[in-house]
Amino acid sequence: MDKKKLISIVVPVFNEDNGLGNFYNQLKNVINKLVYDFEIIFVNDGSVDNSLDVLISLHKNDKRIRVMDLSRNFGQQNALTAGIDQAKGEAVILLDVDLEDNPEYIVFFIDYWNKGYQVVYARRGKRKTSTLRKICFGIFHRANCIISSVNTDAAGTFCLMDRTAVEQMQKLTERDKYIPGLRSWVGFRQIGIDTIRGSRYDNMPRVKFSSLFKLAFDSFTSFSTVPLKISMFFGILFSLLSFLGIGVVIALKVIFKLAIVGWASTISIILLLGGVQLICIGLQGEYIARIFNEVKNRPNYIIRDKIGFDE
To answer: How large is the greatest C-alpha to C-alpha distance in the chain, in angstroms?
Structure first.
């Protein structure tokens, strides 16, 4: 690769005023050693603390920094999308501000990029987090490998994408985005490198389990119709069991003159079937809701202000 090619780094920010300075210093120490030009795009995703003021201050001291201020909080995936859409680099790096992903790995990403890989992503190995979260992340990645039509390889958002891959990502305008899955879906020559996932700079996880569950469900429904097929499987299974049960009841009554007594067992079966039906209807509703969101065709984000992009 020629020297002084431009690399864009996209960083979503939501209420991170306490950690921005530390993150910037660590990132600066890494990129200052490299023989490339950089633009650092911070996307302020509707922060209600002093994050925007801190970002503007950083921009005044480092003209490589650009700041996108969204009109409200649109979520991490949409904030990343906003940054990707504005990035001008030959390659684009996605990185969170919480320092769970070490900026030092950017050096390895660029090395593989120079070797011809168009997508280089961090494969999460050890995590410095609670046991419960480790278990949940492990279950999600295993389930995703089984259910999904694309291989996300236990990877998060931390990655480098060549301009070729970025241009294809920019064409994907769906609403409920899961960027690691979309990144895998666009293809090209990809490689994952093992990284150690650290803890947040303040050791306080910010993402709630409800948000993680939504992100996991977005991954399942965006890249697989297996949940709908599971619903049909249960429907066929319980229909066969019901016909079998009817045959047994008739045989006992006609042949052996026995009547089935068991109010509790009957109610239990009814509740079980009712629960399965509601789950199946709920899964179908989730897919319909996503169709509804796509049909509305609203933008994934709205920009209130851009700072430093014309410099």
So the answer is: 91
